[in-house]
Design goal:
Three copies of one chain form a homotrimer. By secondary structure, chain A is α+β, with helices and mostly antiparallel strands. The first copy, chain A, has eleven helices and 18 strands. The longest helix of chain A has 29 residues. Chains A, B, C: Pfam families: P2X_receptor (PF00864).
Chain lengths: 413, 413, 413
């Protein structure tokens, strides 16, 4: 029993290593080393240094955005609405929704229809002899089917039911100048995987500095206050058209953080795009507008409303980020891939060595040892060995195999 | 020195390859090739073709959603509110919030409590002799503790402080029919990793086409206009109940883009789910409703309000996406894994070869060369070699080892 | 032709395995096994069990949040506004926006400026002899440049154009007590990769249980109803200051799901942070406030408004998640990396074996077989072999190489 255990232990604590053939050939040797060098260069330069494959990364960013707009504008409005003529608009008037979230609109143009009551009246836009229900085009109310016209006219206007008088949105008005408005953006992010929290301006910035600065891509890339005109300019779009028809602007805050370096290098990068750019070729639904109403009551309690068709620039503050930090798993996997890849260079060299080089047959003979199944080889092997060579010869042969083969073959047969 | 360098270079530019044993056995050979074939098939078919392991992928999608609802509805309301009786509701009335963001509500039912002033009055719902403060159940105001009842009654109603009269939300009203409303969705996305921007309808679609089309999963899968009734129908829910109690509907836009192919194949896929489905089994908080108020002023400046309990269908347009593009790092890692895995087939063959095959001992002898430490082997090895075999014999032995062993052993001892 | 095919098949269905040298040395054997043990332990313990490298993971969570606030508060307001004096605030008054989305504000303090009309009046805050346009500091309207002062005074007040009278936000008022308000959060998530949908409270929870419970990290970690005071307390911030100046609170719902286990273990974990914490060191823009207006009309149709500067606590319900499920690709890659890494242990052992051990030269001789290009070796190799040893000797040599070498060399020359 003890002997058995000893035998097992002796067998267990052996070390097995592959037997190698060393080829002293300059041509193959140089090819071998060059291939290895290329592979090492690729892994060190591209995989490890450029692509940072030794890091695990987190793109699942947690972000909170707070915005605050400042500025005053004059609303040059249509003449018939005295309430809106040359009105000074402040933040409570033109920012919607007012809560300062990451998505907000700055209203640049308002088509106002005051004193709408529920009832029946003529539609404004479509003139027709047949007042059927239009399927797609916008009508400001439910078409009743009746056609209101004077007896001597062939064409009239459709009657509609709903809020009357109907909105006439065909009028042309000048948009409000919002270029000098400023947007203050407070963005705090967290990478949950690494539990790292950052803000979009450094804690060393004083309140005085922040109040005075204006964002500039080169001169002041960390200032959190953006001039609306600058933002629109950075998108490369026609500002006049944007103000007049509305539009969607993306303010992208990109966090690319290498957490192996100083955390102070983990700073945001801003970029600005027009979000409806993919639809530039379609003529449909250009710009951005929405309708909202303010509700009032007459003395006797009847509700009426003021309808607003608001053309606005919508800002979407979108935060994307990626943090990387050293992690053993990707490092191990990539290191193993690197080491194994170096070995793959040998495949190429073997092909050259065994096929195209002078002396290929010699190398083949060196590299490959052939063995044939026992049943075929037994006559071919067994007897000549015994007859021609004394067993002591085996001590001289450093290969244990021949001797064992004999013994093995003996005991098997 | 020059000689030393030369020696170093000679050593450096050598090529080392493993010595292999070639087993000419049909059984093992066939097993070997079948295992290799299976592994190659798995890697080519599953890992590379199906799972696209040669691509790096980006799921961190940047998305902007703009929505616009169209349609008119009649609000069949309770009799006592003349303001809301058979009112025609338009977008400004029933969509909340109005800005056309990715999350919006279509109000289907309104319980309206008009002319609420601050003060004290009786609560509507709970009739009780003891007016204590209820902890959880909804009361429309702060319970003062007083119980208002006629002297001849045993039960009365609790007095409350707040907006009076109190809301009575127990009344039954018919929901508005919103099935024929349409939702226009404009979604532009970007994969920041690959800097690819896409819109949810192709740029070749004209304004005319878009205005006329209605989304259909098979017939018109790219039309960005959705009939509300269709959307509700696709969720497989009871539409009558949804309209009556409200609900949360998810409109999922899924982008699965293989950027190695034509970018035109990168198109969205829509799916519709009821988001409160995981809570279907709990009887709590079914449906979806919220309260909002419109504020008015009397002539003498006192503020009063109209409270609305709105039952609504909330639509959450949720955009998910994944883009894949060829990248050398995952390709390298998976290729190395593939090649190494093919080698793993040899482990299986070795087990069969060395244990279960006829002639296993012979193979073992071929594969393994044994060596024992020098101190033990020296007597066993050294002398017989010298005595029995002339050194010239070593030239015949293609193994350089025995000769070197002698020399090495000599110089060591 | 048939013979050629047969030969090809015989060659194809052979099995090639590396020739190994077995070193029967206790020292190297033990080192070898220890290194292998360490590598296996690392892979099994860290890579597979701890880091779950056998799973593919999805962090791209799809989430929908519905919130509902309950509670009443008293607004202790400035004396001059009778409308807001000791007003009972309900949900429709203090929650903004009212739709119950994942981001909402609870207003704690209101600075109300009633009856603002468009016009010109004096600014409240800045007293100056020179009324130039201030760039950054907040003014409630457009400064006209005129300075309104009595003739006998040296200092006056600037005239502004806009909504008059101007807001005076310097007054001190007590915030509303919101500690006892409750927030009900309904969160349903989906992992699109695995198509798994979950809700934030178990379906076994009855409506009664949910109505009565209050979230507690240890005692009731799955209750979806949160006391506002508890949430503020969990952030570790000064609650009095939070109520008075406003603030942004993050309610993080973290889903960490191992989908290989029972799906019932896939439950949310709540945590609470103050989101503006990264800006704590900057003195700028502490707290959270926004302005909104209610619009009214006089009898003769002139619009006027009530401006509110609302100090609020904004709650951002942020949902992050990660689901993992067994997947063959990462499993294969990591297994291959593991197996290959075990092989890397051999590199260490080889270095020890070939350099530091007694008998290193002997091992070297065993492991490496040298071969030199044919042109050099031909004299050195060919003739002695033929002269000294009879060809029959080759049968005794288990290496096929020497014999083949001769043949090969013969035919080549």
């Amino acid at each position: 029993m003890g002997f058995f255990l000893w035998g097992f232990l002796t067998d267990f604590f052996t070390y097995e290593t592959t037997k190698s053939v060393v080829v002293k050939s300059w041509s193959v040797g140089i090819i071998n080393r060059i291939v290895q060098l290329l592979i090492i260069t690729y892994f060190v330069g591209w995989v490890f240094i450029h692509e940072k494959a030794y890091q695990s990364s987190d793109t699942n960013i947690e972000s909170s955005v707070m915005t605050k707009v400042k500025g005053f504008g004059y609303l040059q409005n249509q003449n018939q609405n005295e309430n809106y003529q040359n009105r000074v608009m402040d933040v409570a008037d033109y920012v919607s929704p007012p809560q300062g979230s990451g998505v907000f609109c700055i209203i640049t143009k308002l088509i106002v229809t005051e004193n709408q009551f529920q009832g029946r009246c003529t539609e404004v836009s479509t003139h027709s002899t047949q007042c059927f229900l239009p399927l797609v085009s916008y009508t400001p109310g439910v078409i009743t089917g009746a056609c209101l016209k004077n007896s001597n006219e062939s064409h009239g206007m459709c009657e509609m039911e709903g809020w009357c008088p109907a909105e006439n949105d065909a009028i042309e008005i000048e948009p409000m100048d919002v270029n000098n408005f400023t947007i203050f953006i407070k963005n705090s992010i967290r990478f949950p995987l690494f539990n790292v929290t950052r803000g979009n301006f450094p804690p060393t910035m004083t309140a005085e500095q922040i109040k005075k600065c204006i964002y500039h891509p080169e001169d002041d890339p960390l200032c959190p206050i953006f001039r609306v005109g600058d933002v629109l300019h950075h998108t490369g779009q026609n500002i006049t058209e944007l103000l007049s028809r509305g539009g969607e602007i993306g303010i992208n805050i990109q966090w690319e953080c290498n957490l192996d370096l100083n955390i102070e290098n983990c700073i945001p990068k801003y970029s600005f795009t027009r979000l409806d750019a993919p639809f530039a070729k379609n003529a449909v639904s250009k710009g951005y507008n929405f309708r909202f109403a303010k509700y009032f009551k007459t003395e006797n309690g009847t509700e009426f409303r003021t309808l607003h068709k608001a053309f606005a620039i919508r800002f979407d503050v979108m935060v994307t980020g990626k943090a990387g930090k050293f992690n053993t798993i990707p490092t191990m996997i990539n290191l193993v891939a690197a080491f194994t890849s170096i070995g793959l260079g040998a495949v190429l060299c073997d092909i050259i060595l065994l096929n195209f080089l002078k002396g290929a047959e010699q190398y083949k003979a060196k590299k490959f040892e052939e063995t044939v199944p026992l049943l075929l080889s037994v006559t071919y092997f067994h007897f000549p060995v015994i007859r021609l060579c004394p067993p002591t010869l085996h001590y001289q042969d450093t290969n244990r195999s021949a001797k064992e083969l004999l013994n093995g073959a003996d005991s098997d047969l």
